What we know:
By secondary structure, this protein is mainly β. The protein contains one helix and eleven strands, in the order E-E-E-H-E-E-E-E-E-E-E-E.
Amino acid sequence: QVQLTESGGGLVQDGGSLRLSCAASGSTLSIFSVNVMGWYRQAPGKERELVARISRSGRIYYADSVKGRFTVSRVNANHTVYLQMTSLKPEDAAVYYCVAGPLEHSFSYWGQGTQVTVSS
């Protein structure tokens, strides 16, 4: 099993920035199985959305809604993924979940979620 621990959510004004962090921990074998890490988000009454993902080799995907504003990165050595969010908008407000898994479309592990609130 892999545990994902998120941090960095909070309240920010429209146009502001936040940085989310997520650290993966677990057995050596479980950690080795994690190729892709990323972030989903879900706002009340809306479908869950894949925001960004990054593979161990550095292959990156962004949702169209965040391109040019969000940057995903990771440090493989300490199994940590980051999401730098800039030019935040009220519509970015959601619970953000860290995810990890072996494939780009297979996330076996989910974090507890961290709330991002953007005030207008």
